[in-house]
Design brief:
mainly beta, about 70% strand, 6 strands, about 70 residues
């Protein structure tokens, strides 16, 4: 079983960087997605589900969308 704990950084073959926090192998805590070093998405997870305020940013870094999740 996957038992990741704490902050993890994953970078895919396209240079998309995900910063995810895990607790007992589940996404729990802050999340950020960066494309070429520019913040594209910020939010948080609670037990592998999006939770709270999630913000999406344009390639120039401007706020494009805010979504609220409750779990």
């Amino acid at each position: 079983a996957d038992r990741r704990v704490g902050p993890w950084v994953e970078i895919d073959e396209n240079g998309i960087e995900s910063r995810i926090t895990y607790l007992d192998g589940r996404k729990t805590g802050p999340f950020e997605l960066l494309k070429k070093g520019v913040l594209k998405k910020r939010g948080a997870y609670l037990k592998d589900q999006k939770h709270g305020l999630w913000t999406t940013f344009s390639d120039s870094g401007k706020k494009e969308l805010e979504e609220e999740y409750q779990n």
